[in-house]
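Sample intake sheet
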Amino acid sequence: MDSWATRQGLVGDLYKLFKNKKSDSEIAEIVSSFSFLDRDIDLLTVLLLSKEGFDSVSQGTMDTHLYLMHNARLKMVKHLLPPGDIILDLGGANAPLHHMGYRHDYSKIVLIDLPTEERHKDFQVVLQDTGGKVVLRYEDMTDLKGIKSASVDLVWSGQSIEHVTPVQGQSMCREAFRVLKSGGRFCLDTPNGHISSIHAATVGNTFIHPDHKIEYTPDQLRGLLVETGFHIAEEWGICEMPMTKKTGVFSYDDFLLGGAITKNINDAYIQFFNCIKP
């Protein structure tokens, strides 16, 4: 067990994060009341899950919800994306697959995105072409004429289909189908229009980002994928939003209350589909 003074210091620091500075005697009383816990991490966990801890963290979710969503998407990439030897990453300049914890071995990732100056200012990340296993190509992800048919094992579209029009989205899905080998996978995630529309409405907008052209509902996206010819192997929700769906009023608390990954796709902020080319 760590020293008494160390425990008091850790608990004091935690309460400062709660914006609630306590006296040395108050801290000592709190620490002594949890003397049965062998590890400091257990003590801190109990305090974080207390009403005071939850209320403090809840107040900060408006500022941290993007981080919480990003963290949930990292879990999605790690646990839900299937293996692929030759991978196409569509529109991934802002968050390329190989930087998001993809855990499978691969021979090559071809990252396709528009030139930096043609992207929205929020996504003007400059990527270096590493050559070898990761190749950057400045092309239109809805027209993959530079990629041979039936040459790719996995096509990944991470938060990109919402940035093109519905007509372009149809072309993007058809092109993904064309370049995939038989049995290859097309995986994508995108905001769930049921939830994102509620969020956007809190500031009088239609979409959650000015560069979005559409925010699909799960039924709309599922219909597009099936119409293209894909078989849907799995569908998941990312960042479940139970109170928002229940009340119709956007709740930042849902980023703490809901699961990071859920089978309840209709009630999640983000939808994820894993599709197979027959």
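Comment: The mean pLDDT is 88. DSSP finds ten helices and eight strands in the chain.
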